[in-house]
Amino acid sequence: MWLAKVIVSLKPVVNDPPGITIHGALRTLGFTGVQSVRSGKYFEIRLDADDEAAARQQIDAMCKQLLTNPVIEEYRFTVEHA
Amino acid sequence: MWLAKVIVSLKPVVNDPPGITIHGALRTLGFTGVQSVRSGKYFEIRLDADDEAAARQQIDAMCKQLLTNPVIEEYRFTVEHA
Lengths: 82, 82
Description:
Chain A has 82 residues and is α+β, with helices and mostly antiparallel strands. In chain A, 34% of the residues lie in helices and 39% in strands.
């Protein structure tokens, strides 16, 4: 069993309305040192695979096919034995 | 300037409808080895602070006051010089 931790974030050039809203809210709350906020998604996926390379290959395919929009998002992940 | 990377995830006992839906979609796509999917949120926050301890204290306060719902969510973060 493998545990993959996947982070999906918007490409730096893409506008991020939730991040802008959270930034404003944090400043209103008094966190005036905040310079920027970018929002993204996080997934923990448990899967069976023969070895770590196979697990990584499967997670990469999942990211491309379902978890991300490659036009506006980028992703990175780690895989560990679980 | 400091860069904080914050991961917010549901507590293990909390039901996760998006995760269940993604799990089903992955299996439909042929990823039959997937055992579970848990969804969460991710934030990258750039902030000014005097030192790393001050940055960590601020990020922790932001998590408690705005970024998470402490009843159903848990969080972890890293802070690095940026």
